[in-house]
Amino acid sequence: MSPPSAPSAPSGPSGASPEALRDLALAVAREGAALVRERRSGAVEVAATKTSDIDVVTEADRACEALVRERILAARPEDGFLGEESADDEHAVPADGVRWIVDPIDGTVNFLYDLDGYSVCVAAEVTVDGTSEVVAGVVVDPATGTEYEAVLGGGARRDGVPLAVRGPAPLAERLLCTGFSYDRRIRVLQAEAWVRLLPHVRDIRRRGSAALDLCLVAEGRADGYVEEGVHLWDHAAAGLVAREAGASTRVLPGVGGLDLLVCAPSHGFEELLDAVEWAGFTGGTAAE
């Protein structure tokens, strides 16, 4: 696929078609991925921590988000912007319009250790009459150059090739992806739930990027994804990719009081959800 040029804003309630928003997301995500790839070629150090001493931020996270934000708002200055590293400085969206949701490096610990499995994620969410929906999403893997993208109602693709989830399989033959919270208290609860569920599934994988895990479900290389502690920027883009490939997603209260995201092919989603609830991943109270 050749890099798209930054599109002009077409007419419509949000000032853009989903395809035009996807093209802009892809252009800026590619540029952000190039910056991340260049930063990874040198020494990488922790710039700060967030929710705990193991929840790290690098200068590359900040630089990538600043670049993406600058490019998007230069092209569409009236849009809103929510980024992981600048969430406290959200660029507000009008009552009806477009908000961009960005994770500059999903999988920062992998990036820090120079391990495969980190991504740049850009999603466009449109609000009309008070109802918001992600209409375009892009996930780019800087290490491999792999690109996942989707438009609402238009399907999902990897490097231009259409994606589809894996066919039906019994629960015992499903490979599930997961991740663990940076909150040590919640990690204990997650581990206890997995002890109950693991004997009833094929196996689990923990790769370190929620977005890339969701894309694995989209391309039929995994049968589901379960994780508490996700944020909107972790799954806005990749969740659309998964849904457009035939998956369902749902955000529930987790046992530790944080958001729990469950994703699986739609044909087997309810069975996995029942198993997740039985194992004790859900039903927590607010985290202290």
Detailed description of the structure:
The chain has 288 residues and is α+β, with helices and mostly antiparallel strands. The protein folds into two domains: 18-154, Fructose-1,6-Bisphosphatase, Chain A, domain 1; 171-279, 3-Layer(aba) Sandwich (D-Maltodextrin-Binding Protein, domain 2). 32% of the residues lie in helices and 27% in strands. The chain contains seven helices and 14 strands. Strands 3-4-5-6-7-8-9 form a seven-stranded mixed β-sheet. Strands 11-10-12-14-13 form a five-stranded mixed β-sheet, with helices on both faces. The chain is globular, with a radius of gyration of 18 Å. The termini are far apart. Mean pLDDT is 89; it is low at 1-13.
Structure keywords:
alpha+beta, D-Maltodextrin-Binding Protein, domain 2, 288 residues, Fructose-1,6-Bisphosphatase, Chain A, domain 1, 2 domains, 14 strands, globular, seven-stranded mixed β-sheet, five-stranded mixed β-sheet, disordered N terminus
Could you give the distance between the termini?
A: 47 Å
- Overall mean pLDDT stands at 89
- How is the biggest beta sheet arranged? 7 strands, mixed
- By CATH reckoning, the class of the largest domain would read Alpha Beta
User: What fraction of the residues are assigned to beta strands by DSSP?
Assistant: 25-35%
For the record, the CATH architecture of the largest domain stands as 2-Layer Sandwich
The total strand number stands at 14
**What is the name of the CATH superfamily of the largest domain?**
Fructose-1,6-Bisphosphatase, subunit A, domain 1
Overall tally of domains? 2
Radius of gyration: 18 Å
Q: From the helix content, strand content and strand pairing, which structural class follows?
A: alpha+beta
Helical content stands at: 25-40%
